[in-house]
Write a structure and sequence with these properties.
400 residues; Growth Hormone, Chain: A; globular; mainly alpha
Length: 400
């Protein structure tokens, strides 16, 4: 495969995650009213998807090491299309949650294989740069997600927003079937043996580089999740922003993220991993402090409140554009022979922790922006501490 095809496929496989989560964000208030769901149930449509997304990767990872990336991607994307159609047709909140769980399980195959593909084809530093290119493509896709969800919800129905996921899944599945070639160097016939699998996970989980970058990527995604899961209620319901305005602001958020991924590629060449992540950690810390500081002033005035949310979030997204490509490629870098298992374990850790954050957020949201501010600031603090300490000690991965 050409480098262009690889980047396009990475962008689609990684971009399917924000498509699955971001398109329906502007629809959440309408969805809640239409299906008569509680705030906890609405948050569960997000959190349960992420939990099944994480758990499924523990299955998809070893399967891909045993049978290869291509069959797992084809199976997973076929299941994603069917689960997305079930979300469109769900008549109740309970059935929607069940369909989102199935959707998350299928989603795990795409994102897990994307990370493993990078390790199949590239050495650690080049892998981080290629992951950054793929995540830049994710950012381009994400730009359209919230505006599309806003327009479809306003002018048609929230189910139309969910239907766009079916279309994206079909397009990705078609491209995979036509253009993707197997990348795994050698299939592992023992990858599914319980003893081998357990020893692999223990070996991976004990590696300090894996621990370091799992913590970095998990904290960064958890901070983003707090914003995504609560922003539509804060900005639309509490601060009076229109759905279209919300979609435009979320698109701007994605543009800032793309800037972060571009900066990541350039800084990795100039500064290396440790210094790049250290500086990004400073940005994350500043974003958390700024969000909490501004939270004490002027939330009652809509446009002041909007900017009090978006300015810290913009700083966070620049740093997120560094932490995610470095973190996700760093977790698999020490394990060229177990990239699927390492990618799966990292994905499980990220989503299990994010599910816990989602449960807390569903209980904490009280109609004010303060749960957003506190959860966001906590994530930023954890990112900064990890970037300033563990990454500086274990940041240069060595093959295990």
């Amino acid at each position: 495969m050409s480098a262009l095809i690889i980047v396009v496929l990475l962008a689609l496989l990684l971009g399917i995650q924000p498509v699955t989560t971001d398109v329906y964000l502007p629809a959440l208030p309408a969805l809640q009213r239409d299906l008569a769901g509680s705030m906890a149930e609405v948050q569960m449509t997000f959190a349960a998807l992420l939990l099944s997304f994480g758990v499924s990767q523990l299955v998809w990872g070893p399967l891909s090491d045993r049978f290869g990336r291509r069959p797992i991607l084809l199976w997973g994307m076929s299941a994603y299309v069917l689960a997305s159609a079930a979300c469109v047709l769900a008549p109740s909140m309970d059935l929607l949650i069940a369909a989102r769980i199935a959707q998350g399980a299928a989603l795990g195959a795409a994102v897990m294989c994307a990370r493993a593909i990078v390790r199949d084809l590239y050495q650690p530093l080049e892998g981080a740069r290629m992951m950054s290119k793929g995540l830049s493509g994710l950012g381009v896709i994400a730009i359209t997600c919230a505006p599309l969800g806003s327009l479809l919800t306003d002018f048609i129905h929230w189910r139309a927003a969910m239907a766009s996921l079916v279309v994206f899944g079909i397009v990705t599945l078609t491209l995979l079937a036509l253009r993707f070639e197997e990348t795994i160097p050698a299939r592992n016939p023992h990858a599914l043996a319980p003893g081998t699998l357990w020893r692999s996970w223990v070996q991976i989980a004990r590696h300090p580089t894996f621990i370091t970058y799992s913590l970095l990527s998990t904290a960064s995604y958890a901070g983003l999740f707090v914003f995504l899961a609560s922003s539509s209620f804060v900005l639309i319901e509490a601060l009076g922003l229109s759905r279209v305005g919300y979609g435009a602001l979320m698109a701007g958020n994605s543009v800032v993220y793309i800037i972060g991924t571009i900066a990541c590629r350039r800084l990795l060449v100039r500064w290396g991993l440790r210094r790049t992540v250290f500086v990004a950690g400073c940005l994350s810390f500043s974003a958390g402090v700024l969000m909490l500081g501004l939270a004490w002033f002027g939330w009652g005035r809509p446009w002041y409140g909007v900017w009090a949310v978006l300015l810290p979030q913009a700083l966070f997204m620049v740093a997120h554009g560094v932490h995610q490509p470095v973190g996700q490629s760093g977790t698999v870098a020490p394990f060229p022979q177990m990239a699927g298992a390492a990618s799966a374990l990292n994905g499980f850790i990220m989503m299990a922790c994010t599910f816990a954050v989602g449960v807390w957020l569903g209980r904490a949201m009280d109609g004010t922006p303060m749960p957003l501010a506190w959860g966001f600031a906590a994530g930023c603090l954890l990112i900064a501490v990890t970037a300033w300490t563990l990454v500086q000690k274990y940041g240069e991965p060595e093959p295990h």
